[in-house]
Structure prediction request, 834 residues.
Amino acid sequence: MEHVTQQLNQLLTRDHAVELDRQSPLASRRELFDLPDGVVYLCGNSLGALPRSVPDRVAEVVRREWGAGLVGSWNSADWTNLSKRVARRLAPLLGVQGEDVVVGDSTSVTLFKTMVAAARLRPDRKVIVVEPTTFPTDGYVAAGVARTLGMELRWCDPADPAAAVDDDVAVLALTHVDFRTGAMFDLAAVTAAAHDAGAVVLWDLCHSTGAVPVELDAVGADFAVGCTYKYLNGGPGSPAFVWVAPRHQAQLDQPITGWWGHARPFDMVQEFEPAPGATSMQVGTPPVLALSSLEAALEAFDGVGMDELRAASLSLTDLFIALVDERLAGFEVVTPRDHARRGSQVALRHPDAYGIVQALIARGVVGDFRSPDIARFGFAPLYVTHADVHDAVEQLVAVVENEEHLDAAYSARKPVT
Amino acid sequence: MEHVTQQLNQLLTRDHAVELDRQSPLASRRELFDLPDGVVYLCGNSLGALPRSVPDRVAEVVRREWGAGLVGSWNSADWTNLSKRVARRLAPLLGVQGEDVVVGDSTSVTLFKTMVAAARLRPDRKVIVVEPTTFPTDGYVAAGVARTLGMELRWCDPADPAAAVDDDVAVLALTHVDFRTGAMFDLAAVTAAAHDAGAVVLWDLCHSTGAVPVELDAVGADFAVGCTYKYLNGGPGSPAFVWVAPRHQAQLDQPITGWWGHARPFDMVQEFEPAPGATSMQVGTPPVLALSSLEAALEAFDGVGMDELRAASLSLTDLFIALVDERLAGFEVVTPRDHARRGSQVALRHPDAYGIVQALIARGVVGDFRSPDIARFGFAPLYVTHADVHDAVEQLVAVVENEEHLDAAYSARKPVT
Prediction:
């Protein structure tokens, strides 16, 4: 028994963490990011770090393409196809073809247009099912869609969403990895169960893409929407993507029929005719600065296998959980310990979670707080190291031992996103 | 008679154009823009030129706020209120209060959510009226809204839109300045006529804001949506704004209920509760890079009176029309000569308009082509000079005299936006 404890202690040393980093096939990727000195950044599940490829690219788009090229850059710099170029870069991370992906609007807008399109595939069904612990905007948007289309919103049991899917359900809208707990649904199994009941599934991949493998084509998914400013590092407020299964594209009918979703936008004819394929999910003029930042950011994934990424992510969260178990009392690990049910973050429950997160930030360890009592730590496998994990827990121990989280400075809660 | 001709000829010399520039109260504003040497840029009604204030500001947001500040910049750099800051800068250009303006989504998405909100103010009426020569996306979006809400789309006579507004009409959606011809509606008169018939008016100000005075509060308008990448110089694909009349805000009910339109977004509660005022028009996480570019760009308007801007615009278009009349044959000036009906552009009809525009671009004069036969020239009064106008017509004369527009290189049409 003493021998086992000794072995465990060796596995939890900083030296061992550094050794794990040395052995990681992703070790060199951290150099692709411009992280401030002295910061352990465990908030890439909220806003991804800055890739070194981005600043010069954005400056070039501003000064050369916009400033010097002016309106001609729609052709000469191929802004017209920028969204499609980004889509092709995203596709391997989703297990899909680039032509089935569209990038351009905010996540909430993208959820709206996609949820309506999904509901219209089942016109005889009147219920949208949403999971109550989802990120709020998903539920808000679903309520808006239901009201607009004269449908009904039904909240399901988070433990078994498919159980709520009966003959009345048009759409099951689920977040793959929970933003608060980091718990992950079995995408394939839930999709299959909902299909058995005749519903269409809309997956929100905000907390998956870039950290957790998804194989949308392989599992026969219907629709997926995801954020690009978290694990994809596109920059604050960068636009969301939507993927539409090829088998649904002939019937695709989304409500926000803007000119970039037209079959021939530049003919400027009076009647709307949807573009073929997923392109009809496009709406307005693409946000060139944001898409350019995202395009450059995605270079950090070039040549990275999703399996490598997943292995690195699990190794980081495993180590974090082991260290928390070993070094800390009074914290509940809310995130599932089962690999199959874990995303790329770890959530700790503690009554003083807010103050703890603030005190940790003051020590250079950036996580975030989620109401009412969750301290949330994201592990972006491209730039978070095992040494970071070790150091973060050391600081967490110090915060608690010194009772820094009870400091009055942390009593006023500020918004976090 | 000879004397009059002599006087006219003097008024049309380059020296006179330079003198007009010297006398212009906006003369120094051109220095705020980074225009390439040798280019006469008459396409600011498609994509505004790069303000010198933008590149460093964008670089700062990328490197310092995102790169160094990371997720903390939502508070420390006040990204949370960035949209509101931009709204306050826009307000004087619209004759409104900043709190009644929201900025964030593409023009097409903004038209969609606003048109639905407008229609919901008249639930007993089932028709949306649109003008058939409007920019296509307005008609496409209106068709999408009508279909989604079970309403009917009705095309009106461009000569008298309000005549189409009867007791069945919920919304009249009009573009203030026509994208193709530059013709301008009387905003106050059309609004009043539609109100007399009980309808709500949604004005598309894409080709007005930043060049043509609009006094939305003063005329009792209902809703307005506009683009920020044309005369406002926000950058390619920068987000649109929406203004909601204060008297409609208590009943405001837009369909895309995202978390940034919630009364308390960061509480992350399950049920949607709209934010008070115009804020419920917000949807998703704001596009920080684009909004930062736009915020910096709007500094070019600081201290500029809308009357000054209008006077400069009319002086430029007057001179352009006079020079075209004097120097060119075979061109029809499609834009109204009446000041009260003219926006800030001049459209010339010519059967070879496409080739003419391309040949002009090759000579450094950037206008654009609109199908089927329009050569379009925009006069952004902050940076276009009377000398530019003179030089542009000289080049146009040279193109036609040398028949450069018949060059085979210009036969393949490329998209323009």
Remarks:
- Chain B has a mean pLDDT of 95.
- Chain B touches chain A through 91 residues (CB under 8 Å).
- Chain B is about 35% helix and 10% strand.
